[in-house]
Amino acid sequence: MSESNNVSSVDLGNDNQNEKETLPNATAVLVLGIMSIVGCLFYGVVGLICGVIALILHKRNKEVYATNPLKYAASWENARAGYVCAIIGVSISALYFIYFMIVFFIAIAVVSTVL
Fold first, then answer.
1. Could you tell me if 23 and 75 are in contact, meaning their C-beta atoms sit under 8 angstroms apart?
2. In a domain, 103, yes or no
3. Is there a domain that residue 16 lies in?
4. pLDDT value at position 16?
5. pLDDT tens sequence across 41-59
C-alpha cells in the first residue's frame, strides 16, 4: 500500500504545458481599440492612429495564438474584443476624418471666393 502512495505523489512535470498564459499585447489591443472609438471625436486622427496600432498588435497576437491556442485561450477573448473595437474605431474615425477634410476644403473655397 505504501508503494501506491509514493507513485501518486510523484510530480510528472506536465503542469507547465497546461498553464494558461496571456498574449503579449492582448490588453494593449483592447485599450487601443477602445481608445480608437473615443479618439474619433478628435477629428478622426487620434482614432485612426490608435486603431491602426491595435490592428497591427492584434495581427502579432494572432500569430502567437496560432502556435498554441489552449495556452492563450483566456486572453484571446480580450484581443478579439480589442480587434472588434479597433475596426469600429477605424471605420468611424475614417468617416469623421473624411467629413472634416471635406468641410475644411469647402470652407477654404468659400473664403477664397469671397476675398
1. yes
2. yes
3. no
4. 53
5. 888 899 999 999 999 999 9
Phi/psi zone of residue 44: left (φ > 0), alpha (ψ -120 to 50 degrees), beta? Answer: left
Helices (H) then strands (E): counts for the chain = 4, 0
35 falls within a domain: yes
Q: What is the spatial distance between Cα 62 and Cα 64, in angstroms, rounded to a whole number? A: 5
Query: Is there a domain that residue 92 lies in?
Result: yes
DSSP state string for 8-26: HT---S-TTTS-----TTH
- Domain range holding 61? 23-114
Please report, for residues 5, 29, 102, 103, the alpha-carbon distance to residue 96 in angstroms, rounded to integers and kept in the order given.
69, 22, 10, 10
Question: For the chain, what is the domain count?
Answer: 1
